Amino acid sequence: MAMNVRLRDEQTEALKLRAEQEGVSMHAIVLRAVDDYLARTAHEGLVREAAKEQTAKWAELLERLK
User: Fold this and answer.
1) Which DSSP helix (H) or strand (E) runs through 46?
2) Cα–Cα distance measured from residue 10 to residue 31, given in angstroms and rounded to the nearest whole number
3) How does pLDDT run across 3-41, given as a tens digit for each residue?
4) Which end of the chain is more exposed for a tag (fewer CB within 10 A), N or C?
5) Global confidence as pTM
């Protein structure tokens, strides 16, 4: 799927500089950033859900420990 991304001028310049430093395309860096974001937020979602389950499971004990 193709899409357009509008970056601020300073973002474009920073991205261009980083791409030159790494010897890769700006496109490659953007794809890596999207992959990193998706992986990180998926993990955070799993941790958040596990915390909710454990809080419910141990609610009585947690209340007594207050």
Assistant:
1) helix 26-57
2) 19
3) 999 999 999 999 999 999 999 999 999 999 999 999 888
4) N
5) 0.65
